[in-house]
Amino acid sequence: MEARPVHSLHIIGSKKLGGAESFFIRLVTSLTNAGHPVDVICRPNSGVFNALKDTPVTVHPVSLRSVFCPFSRHQIQQIIKTIKPDVVQTYMGRATRLTRIPKGSSCKLIARLGGYYKLNGYQHADCWVANTQQIRQYLIDHRLPPSRCHYIPNFVGQQQRTGEKVAPPEAMQQLAANDLVILGLGRQVPKKGFDSLINAFASLPETINGKTLKLVLLGDGKGRQALVDQVANLGLEQRLLMPGWQTNIWPWFQRAELFVCPSRHEPLGNVILEAWAAGKAVISTANDGANELIEHDKTGLIVSLDNTAHELQQALLELLQDPDKRQQLATAGYQQIEHEFSESSVREQYLQLYRACIDQV
């Protein structure tokens, strides 16, 4: 007998799009496409709201101004009472702290964590989902019941996995057809390590095998001006492109030869999964996410968090000079996506968790 659809409500308090928000959009879209009713609570005119407002997903705009907003807490409870979901899934601190299941409701609260957060605002949940094994262990180490702490990984967008061609963005016109492109992506803040990547790039030759090396850094953030100043001080303005946040990153992955994740701290590393799905070789620092995802010299290259710029430079030079090894690593990474991080597998793991929570007395 086929299992009945599961009605889930997903709540997120972010304003801008990032890795967690992009996965949120992918998961609720996947559940909807598979025939499961989905409602979403998010901030009006946020990145999530704008991405979902014209889709089959039912979106409820709520201000979610802060973790102490009583009006938002009341609105969330009223929505739960009205739509009567089977499960409510919250993402990160603001949404989790504001969400309380109303008295008399039978739905379960699932808190999803993508980092090593302070847990005092999460303990009222019925169970917790971590997107890495290390985060799950962190929850257990902080005395949350192991039987209610679950690991479910992320999956990446279908467009990347199908190889669908899309129109290049206008900013890409600054790249010449013969350029050899290295790609970095993420919030431009110190912990993402883009300063080390820029220093590594500065020590590379300007050309390899007759092609001009270019570094593209996608993203924005509070540390952007410091990176712009660093680029100017190193005289890299003609070889380094910083086009800001990009709504569609896939054309940039298509254009790049390889991807670098230089983060000093990265609990998961959605960008690594995205690069693999795009068929690109990956170099990463030995952050937590990379250590869990990458098998060194098989699915990518990992460099130390110490002396990072020098080790990144050596790894970049190795792969830029060896197209066969680039392809070998890219193929192995893509195969890992197929085996462990497919959309259907991750969606089914969430549905199994939802049904298990529903069955709990």
UniProtKB/TrEMBL annotation:
Which SUPFAM superfamilies does the annotation name? UDP-Glycosyltransferase/glycogen phosphorylase
Q: Which residues form the Glycosyl transferase family domain?
A: 176-335
In its UniProt record, a GO molecular function of this protein is: glycosyltransferase activity
Q: To which species is this protein native?
A: Neiella litorisoli
Sorted alphabetically, which InterPro entries does this protein's record hold?
A: Glyco_trans_1, Glyco_trans_4-like_N
GO term, biological process aspect, one: carbohydrate derivative metabolic process
- Glycosyltransferase subfamily 4-like N-terminal domain sequence ranges: 18-156
Q: Which Pfam families match?
A: Glyco_transf_4, Glycos_transf_1
Question: What protein am I looking at?
Answer: Glycosyltransferase
